[in-house]
């Protein structure tokens, strides 16, 4: 019996931002979709504007699975995950075990197709997926602050600082050209 896809569908049950007071909860399924859209956008910008030759579709699929291990581990809040190097390294090990557990649920003929997507063995695309992941977090912070939830002010500042350090030209373009629209209302967007 192939249990992989049923397990993946459980991403919708894992909430993010567990330590924060949210005006709207966000699960890893929603977050992964947004991250996939953003990863695709970043790679498309890099290809079109910066003359890279990267696979935007693969970046999007990697992003869809980038937090799949959290089905097994749950979402570890960032302040805990990065509290010190020992915790960070231990969590990375747990993530790898969880990824292997998910891959083991696939039939043998599909394992090597999904392994690079779940374990992301593409260092170049990983940078874009990580940038998209940070953008998704920033967008969540922007939305929460726009709703008057000051709980997300520090997270927004920290996320903006992390994005600034990433030194990815396509990310800089997205920040300048696209992020301002996330501050607009529906009527202003229309």
From TrEMBL:
Keywords: Hydrolase, Metal-binding. It is an enzyme of class 3 (hydrolase). SUPFAM superfamilies: HD-domain/PDEase-like. Pfam families: YfbR-like. Its EC number is 3.1.3.89. Signal peptide: none annotated. Its cofactor is Mn(2+); Co(2+). GO terms for cellular component: cytoplasm. PROSITE patterns: HD (PS51831). This is 5'-deoxynucleotidase. It comes from Ruminococcus difficilis.
